[in-house]
Design goal:
The protein is an alpha+beta fold and 311 residues long. 30% of the residues lie in helices and 38% in strands.
């Protein structure tokens, strides 16, 4: 028995020593961590794009005046409703036959229909999806009405199908192409500086807007820039920037845009970048950065000018 206790003690000592050595060498597998209790991640962009594609296919078919079949985009028993406001201010709910809508798209017609979708706000939870899409509807290029579509879609065997459409319809306060509105805002903003219209210039920015100038020290929030720029506005003209080109991109939900410009300025060509946000249907500049565009062939001379060595 004494020998057994000695053997057991020796075996235990060897096991512990080996375990410690293995841990130091990283040979012992760690105990698996418990599974995360966080919710599953949101659906992939790929799934969201599948939903958007169904809606795009519907309106692409609507634009084909010779007619197109869209019945495969709908669930059997799908519904169509519209909400509008009468001249007396009363809300009207109209339920329509979805088959009549499908047949109207299928039949050839002389009029050209074009429903422009300005943005997509899509939410997906498993086999259910919802899409909120502001629109303007044109007949033969003329605005007929506008509003918002709300789509409900269901995924059946891997295919998204429309189960319900409900929309609003009005003839006033219709959205135009947001890029047109952004172009106008940016042009007016640059013009406001050239004409020393201080109020128009700074009211085109968000209250927390940021302006980054060409000098490394020039980064101001809106109110700091208002103070810095006051002498320039007081003299009757601040600075004159004219856009030679501009590229605009807009987020899927239609509430954020970013733009880059080539500007004709007194410093020569400059590059600018802007971030804009939509507030109460109006676009405002949240961030603007302007930089002098140095031609590649002139970089060595530019580096010497600022006391830097070239490559």
């Amino acid at each position: 028995m004494a020998n057994y206790r000695v053997f057991l003690a020796f075996f235990t000592l060897v096991f512990i020593t080996s375990s410690l050595t293995a841990q130091k060498r990283g040979l012992i597998l760690q105990k698996p961590k418990p599974e995360s209790t966080k919710p599953d991640p949101s659906p992939s962009d790929a799934e969201t794009m599948k939903v958007q594609k169904v809606i795009e296919d519907l309106f692409d078919a609507m634009r084909i005046s010779k007619g197109a079949n869209v019945s495969h985009l709908f669930e059997s028993g799908a519904t169509l409703s519209s909400v509008s406001t009468s001249q007396l201010g009363q809300t009207k709910l109209q339920n329509s036959n979805i088959q009549g809508f499908i047949d109207a798209i299928r039949k050839p017609r002389s009029d050209q229909w074009d429903e422009k979708i300005w943005s997509y706000d899509i939410k997906v939870d498993g086999p259910l999806a919802e899409a909120w899409t502001p629109y303007s509807f044109y007949v033969n290029g003329n605005l007929s009405h506008c509003g918002v579509n709300n789509f409900e879609l269901v995924n059946q065997s891997g295919a998204w199908k429309i189960n319900r459409i409900i929309d609003t319809r009005r003839k006033l306060d219709c959205t135009t192409d947001p890029k047109e509105a952004i172009n106008q805002l940016m042009d007016d903003w640059h013009q406001a500086a050239a004409k020393a219209d201080e109020n128009a210039f700074f009211e085109s920015m968000t209250p927390d807007g940021i302006y980054v100038g060409t000098d490394a020290s020039e980064r101001w929030n809106r109110e700091e820039m208002r103070v810095w720029a006051k002498p320039y506005f007081d003299r009757g003209t601040a600075w004159s920037f004219t856009a030679k080109s501009r590229n605009i991109s807009i987020s899927k939900d239609g509430d954020i845009a970013w733009a880059d410009e080539v500007l004709d300025t007194w410093m020569g060509d400059c590059r600018s970048t802007a971030i804009l946000v939509k507030k109460d249907q109006d676009w405002k500049i949240k961030y603007f950065h302007v930089a002098i565009a140095v031609p590649n062939d002139a970089v060595d001379g530019y580096l010497k000018l600022i006391g830097k060595q070239g490559r």
